[in-house]
Amino acid sequence: MTERIRMQVAYDGTDFHGFARQRGLRTVQGTLEEAIGRILGMAVEVEGSGRTDAGVHARSQVVHWEQPYGPPPERYPEVLRRVLPEDLIPLQADLAPPGFHARFSAKRKTYRYTIQRARVPDVFTHRYAWHVPVALDLAKMRDAAQQLVGEHDFTSFCAAATPVEDKRRVIHEIRLEERETYLDVYCTGNGFLQYMVRIIVGTLVDIGMGRLDRPVAEILHARDRRLAGRTAPAKGLTLWEVVYDLDPAERGETSS
Questions:
Q1: CB-based contacts of 159: which residues, under 8 Å, 6+ apart?
Q2: In the chain, which stretches have pLDDT less than 50?
Q3: Residue positions annotated with a catalytic role
């Protein structure tokens, strides 16, 4: 009989070729599978809540794997920290509830994209922020962001070669927050296409700079990647939070 272990991890994606396992390349999935396999003395397959691209970070990625035996789940973070590299940190682990799947059980995901607007980039944060040393019209950016909220076909806001046929996604919120010289863009949705958040951010920045004045509704309706803005660099993007259980109000339930 096997058990399913659920674990939350954080990583600096700078030196990883994304989350998904790739032969001959350093990836988050491959590194986790190798480390857990060493502990158990057997091969394991790690599933994640989503596939972050090369250079993208995670504050809260959720993974799971099956095992017939092993340490108590809550001890995994301590045990794995002895064998994992410093840029991949296990935070907490437990026994997954029945039917749990790191990817398919997820209800919402939030990504945070960080832009630094100072004249000179900060050497201590340049791995985690896109340096944009020009004035941005935040009012126009916020207005454009609100037009992306809701259920839409996001063909114009994903990689042109994305193999997924159904490109409809629901964006629950896009929020812009200022902190000193930084601008954080939080994007929450039920799922995201390849490069989707990075293209959304690149489009908002182009609008804020005055480089793009095409209405967002027109870009969405056209379903043409060429009409949206640039793709923001991977280094500014962080998988911020994965939500599995919505509260009753979010599920549309009411108390009796």
A1: 193, 194, 195, 225
A2: 253-256
A3: 53
